[in-house]
Every structure is written in C-alpha cells, then in structure tokens.
Amino acid sequence: MCAAAQSSAIPGRDLLTFPIGLVVEAPATGGVSGAGIWNPAATELADSNRWRLSVGSMNAPTDVAVTAQFFAVSHAWLGTTYTASMTRANVGKLLRTDTDPLTIGDEIQYQTVLLSLQASRRLLPHLVAGIAVRSRNGRLDDVSRTSTSVDVGVVADHLTPLDLRVGASSFLLSPSAMSRETASLLAGVDARVIARDTSHTIRAGYSFQRANGLYTEHFVYGSGRWDKLEVRVGTAETAIYQQTNWRMRFGVVFHHGGYLVGVAREETPNGFAPSYQFTLSSVFP
Fold first, then answer.
1. Residues in contact with 42: Cβ distance below 8 Å, sequence separation at least 6, in sequence order
2. Does pLDDT of 118 surpass 80?
3. What is the DSSP letter of 94?
4. Would strands 80-91 and 66-77 be described as parallel, antiparallel, or unpaired?
5. Confidence (pTM)
6. CA–CA separation, 53 vs 74, rounded Å?
7. CA 112, CA 98: separation in Å to the nearest integer?
8. Of 16, 22, 18, 17, nearest to 253 (Cα)?
9. What is the pLDDT of residues 105-115, one digit of tens each?
10. Which CATH number fits domain 2-278: 1.10.10.10, 3.40.50.620, 1.10.3720.10, 2.40.160.40?
C-alpha cells in the first residue's frame, strides 16, 4: 500500500482481485448477478424481461478485514440492455502507528469505488457484445486518485450440441492511464456435461484472468442443477505478489421465478478464515 501512495498508481486495485459478484463462476461469462462487473456483455436481458435489479456483498476474513458491496440496475430498450452499477471494496481496521505498536489518530482509509455505465446487445443469434465506461476512485489515507477506463466484452452462447458458452473481456482498460491503472484480460468457457433439460443439468468450465504485474488466475469448476437448486464447486490457482496459492470455492444458487439467490464460500490460504459472497438478482417484465 505504501508503494501505491508513493507512485502515481490508483490505490485499491488489489481489492478488485476478489471474486466480487460471482458465485463460483467464470468472471468472463458471469450469470447470477447480471451486474457486468467483469464483462459488460454478461448484462443482457432476455426478450421477455425489461428490468433487473442486482445487489450483493462479500466479507473476507477478519484477519484481512476486506468487505465489498455492489448494486446494479439494468433496463432493456430497443434490443439493447443498459446497466448502471456501483462496486465498493475496502479494508478496515488499518491502525495508524508511529515507532511503536501504540495506535495514534484515526484508522487509515484504504478503499476503491467503481462506477460503470454499460450497454450490451445481441448482434448475432449466438453472440452478445458489450461495452462499459468506468470510473474508478482509489483512496489510501490522504491520497485519492481517479481514472476512467473503457472495457469491451463478448459472450457466445448455445454453441454446439454441448451448449458451449465462451466469454472474453477487458477490465479497467485505460490507454490514457496505463501507468496508473492495471488492466486485466479475462476469458472463460463452460459446457453441458449431462442434461435432461435446462433445469436438470451438469456443467463444467474453465476461467482465466491476467493482470500484468499484479496477478494470474486459473479456475476450474463444475455445477449441478436439479429444479430450483444448483450446487457449484471449483478450485482456483492464483499467482499474486510472487506467491502461488490454491483455494477451493463452494456455492449454492436458488432459482425461483425471476429471482436468483446465490451464496458462496471461498477458502483462503495460510490458515485464514474463509470469505463469503451473497448475491441477489431479480428480473421484471
């Protein structure tokens, strides 16, 4: 964090390496929240729905004290889905000290707020494209900086008899602030393994993320749905800060009418307590 304050980098970029708004799924294909945090093409609303509201939160271990929240609203108009979202992540309990362990003054603020305006549209029967304009503010103590980025993404779905789905996107791509903002490239694919119908199916997938100089993640996962209940499990390998760790992720999604409720748990390395995700989305005609 000290390096972020001394350089021209936007503080808080590492807080967006957590799987915010995801329930054991590839960021590039998304699904449960529909918020488009990671891929603007994942916000598309079906023809029969015109509105979607999404909210969610993440609580990381008390040892780390990272929390995050997001809110998104989507509206479909003339074949295009427009989405506005806000994502906030922060670290609490950063105590200010001097030359000894005794705390002085207020806690150190370390947070980031991401505002996004997005649009997605189905260009072909099996292809959705999206674009997002984002503004990210990062704050570390009394240092506050902001950058603007433009991201693009695609999702190709219902491909081949395996119902293959492929997604790819950029995240925080800011050509005018490349030295201050770290962009990510994301890709993901999943396919049907066994299915009786869309409500009784088993799927498997793979996800890749890379942000130069920050982190690389490989994620393999599977899901099984039976009627309204879906169970998901996966394992992620992440290389960050010159260290590599493995983490298991578990999730449950409840499907009911136009509502999706997701709860996920992610194990953490080095004996820390697990982190938890909660996501709720609802669509309206």
1. 28, 29, 30, 31, 34, 36, 120, 130, 153, 155, 167
2. yes
3. -
4. antiparallel
5. 0.91
6. 7
7. 25
8. 22
9. 677 899 999 99
10. 2.40.160.40
